[in-house]
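Crash report, auto-generated. Payload:
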Amino acid sequence: MESQPRIGVYVCHCGTNIAAMVDVEQVAEFAATLPHVVVARDYLYMCSDPGQTLIKQDIQEQQLTRVVVAACSPSMHEPTFRGATREGGINPYFMQMINIREQCSWVHTDREKATQKAKALVASAVAKAALLEPLEDREVGVTPGAVVIGGGVAGMIAALDVADAGFPVYLVEKSDHLGGHVADLNRVFPTLESAKELIEPLIKRVQTHPHVTVLLNSQVTGLEGYVGNFELQVTNSKSEGPNPKLSVGSIIIATGYDIFDPRRKPELGYGQYPNVITSLEMEHRLATGDLTVDGRSPQNVAFIQCVGSRDAQVGNLYCSRVCCMYTAKQSRLVRELLPQARVTVFFIDVRVFGKGGEEFYDETRAKRVRYRRGSVSEIYQRDGRVVLVGEDTLLSRPIEFEADLVVLAVGMEPRADTATLSTLFKLPRSADGFFMESHPKLRPVDTVVDGVFLAGCCQGPKDIPDTVAQAKAAASSALIPLILGTVPVESATAVVDADLCAGCGMCVDVCPFGAPALDPLWGVSRVNAVLCKGCGACAAACPSKAIQMQRFTPEQIMAQVDALME
Amino acid sequence: MKTESMAEQLELFGCIQCGKCTGGCPVARKTELNIRSLIYDMLVEPEMDLKAHPELWDCTACFTCVERCPKDVRPAELIIKLRGQLVESGRIPETIGTALNSIFRQGNPSGMAREDRAAWANGIPVKAAQEGCEILYFVGCIPCYDPRVQVVPRALVRAFTAAGLDFGTLGTEESCCGNEVRCMGEEGLFEMLVEDGSELIHSVGANRLVTTSPHCFNTFKNEYGLDGVEVLHYTQLIAELIEQGRLDFSHPPNLPGREAEGKIIVTYHDPCFLGKQNHIFDEPRAILKAIPGVKLVEMDRNRERSLCCEGGGGRMWVEGTNVEERLASQRVHQAVETGAEILAVACPFCLLTLEDAVKVQGLDDRLRVMDIMELVDLAL
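Recovered output after restart:
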């Protein structure tokens, strides 16, 4: 039994995030009066290097045995402060974080009451810290290899990067060929190179790479395990043989997008007038060079932007990010193929933000493509010709515009099977329906599921350069556990007191991870510490109180509650 | 008039000036009305001089602008609000004033006496809803009083009776629903009508309310907030009765004076308040297809693209700034182009405006305008 604990308390200002609503100096002064506390400080950014140094120095100079950090959520900086505690020379699990930002300063408006609450929270953390037990960091081995779902540009690039690093990759593709939507394109902006020439070498490399196994006509239908050791069930729609199970360390989702069906904008007459076509159909026409309508070369070609994008009426609030550029590309190719034709683009805003985008748009206008500001409200027929009805908003005048070929610049949508995958992988979707990244700025290819990463348009509309960049980022993140060869697992697991266990098996029933099992010889529960995530469900369910959660023992929790009540 | 607070109240700041509203507006191409430009003025100018905008009375409240807006801005509501400013200061066309006054005094816009409201049913047994009934039939002002339209409620009563429905009407207690009152900007009168009307409707205790007019249907469904009462347009109820096999057609419609042989070719005009605003497109067509001997053909502009007849939003009582090119006149030509001999409608206003247009355009010998219920009635 150790002598009296010596506790240091560190109150973070988080700039003004906490300090504006909580009197942090007062909280630190209060903390200094609590039992076992030998030092209490406040600092501008505790997570900064000087902030961490304060903790390390105090551990050494003041012989601290416990550390309490009152700052942000532990999901943000618990690893940071555990690291500082370890470097100070004591067990990292002797550090207790308490959240006075998300759960205090951010949600209150009365400074005095918020300060009172912060004090109570700090007191509870100090009470618990005194009772903390040391734990050991634990890790498990990683199954080398990755699964990439989706064989478009994103999936192929990601697969190649992982494979080039020397790890086996399974590329699972739903259809019977690789290439995704790009395989359906003619030429790509802003270089105007052939999509075929872009994609075919990529497909060839994937097919011949010694580390890549391509599974066509295949879908992932089951998932077990966790980061480092996933097991995926794959179902092949064409084969009747046994469905392979793939064991890998990380997973990249690159399932792509669906194209907006303009029949959901019935006022535009798509599906009703044969000379109203989608931009994808235009790609096919440009590929064959045949733009004729009823055997005649069109003299008036109109493009309509933002069909199915930026439109609350169809529930797609986002910009699809590629339509402005591909419309510039197509309109310009039409000018080249049909020098006599008048080509008009109806737009709301022109968004050509990518590298070379504005220059491409300049060249398009120089080729005498006419840009008219104003979206088309409806299309109908008059004397056999289609009439575009809208307003030229720069003329402030309603217009009727006769055309003999109309191209609807259709946007991207989340794939129809996004919901299925979202359930299977427990991946949340953002408001736009696409898969949601962990953090829009700092973790753009990560998901909330460790070891599962996103690449390409399944995360949101993007062009080929952005898709490739994201695919490479996802591959690099997916490689981290594979290269390390181990992944850390939860140290605070459930522990069974075999003397108290009656062998009822309720813990086995409630555990979502399959960690507890009844020992066939002794008839008592044993928890597999590798599988245990430390969620505490078994400890709560156990009728004999035979299971304890490390770091959340009844004594620790009661001490916290008592301190809060004082 | 100051713009800022109204722009905020109507959430005009969401507008991206795409022009789909003005582009889709059926009157923008024939008058000065430009709703996109009005919204822009509201956003960037501190004041608006309403005297400079007589075209505010041109709007038919078809709500195409609301349907088309990609940012959920509801442009038509701005026109209604601006009209409200004009109403408050008394600067309104005389004929609008007369209609509003008549609604206030007699419960109908046509200057007719309240005690004559049930005269359309003379000789037809109709139960008083006040005695209790499952379905409350709200007849509406124009069907009650207009001799051309009165055939529609009579046909409906015969069909309801044939199907064995337990229904009743409010008789002379029925008052204007206020749909056009709201569109004309008379907010105070509208609120009064909603208050009195809701109380009367709830007192009957019916769980379904069916209307002749899409205008009444729209306002009961979307503005009244009638808890526990399902609001239906008659086309929904009739289509349901046909579907359930409770209405049997015995023969093709006996069209008086028809000389042609073979199928009766009918085209259907979607009323704005039924189609664009409430997305009821299929039921009217289902009824027409169920009538024996009828062949339904479509105009190019149908469903979401139906052309407004120019009878809504108060336009039954005010001419607007361009009298020459009535949209109804364009519309009847579009109907003739389909080869149809009958232009079927499901709205009292459409019935009157389109029938007028047929006469003005000299198309009497080629096209007849009939309410769907007239065809149903002639086939039962």
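Post-recovery validation: Chain B is about 40% helix and 10% strand.
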